[in-house]
Amino acid sequence: MRDDHTYGGPGGELRCQDLVELVTLHLEGGLGDRDRARFAAHLDACEGCRAYLDQMRRTIWLTGQLGPPRLLAEERAQLLALFGALGGQI
Ligand SMILES: [Zn+2]
Questions:
Q1: What pLDDT sits at residue 8?
Q2: How many angstroms separate the CA atoms of 54 and 34, rounded?
Q3: How far, in Å, is the centroid of ligand 1 from the Cα of 57?
Q4: Is 20 helix (H, G, I), strand (E, B) or coil?
Q5: 38: CA distance to ligand 1 center in Å?
Q6: Which of 20, 25, 49, 90 has its C-alpha lying 20 to 30 A from 60's C-alpha?
Q7: Rounded to the nearest whole angstrom, what is the distance from the C-alpha of residue 13 to the centroid of ligand 1?
Q8: How many CB atoms lie within 10 A of CB 45?
Q9: What are phi and psi of 9, to 5 degrees?
Q10: H/E element holding 84?
Q11: Centre of ligand 1 from the C-alpha of residue 75, in Å
Q12: What is the CA(40)–ligand 1 centre distance, in A?
């Protein structure tokens, strides 16, 4: 699937797909300064990813902080489809 849903930010653009891949690292505090800035810039501009991150945080809290859950391939496909739908509106 082609994903042109991108935003500018320090250090280059981050796509929704990139954010989904970085979210586990982000929640573990494993992002470097540059990626963290790009991550924040994307979240600033992208409502879909803010909702996604919020949902991830809530899930982790509900599961008793066992660590970030692995995203199932099916969920991931649904999210990317959602981001694609949002792309035309933002
Ligand atoms: Zn996004």
A1: 46
A2: 22
A3: 16
A4: helix
A5: 11
A6: 90
A7: 11
A8: 14
A9: 175, 170
A10: helix 73-87
A11: 15
A12: 11
Ligand 1 midpoint to CA 58 (Å): 18
Q: Is the pLDDT of residue 71 over 50?
A: yes
Tell the burial category of 46 from Cβ atoms under 10 Å away from its Cβ (0-12, 13-18, 19+): buried
Taking the alpha carbons at both ends of the chain, their separation in whole angstroms is 19
pLDDT tens for each residue of 10-66: 456 889 999 999 998 898 889 999 999 999 999 999 999 999 999 988 888 777 755
CB 80 within 8 A of CB 15: no
Structure confidence at residue 16 (pLDDT):
94
CA 62 / ligand 1 centre spacing (Å) = 24
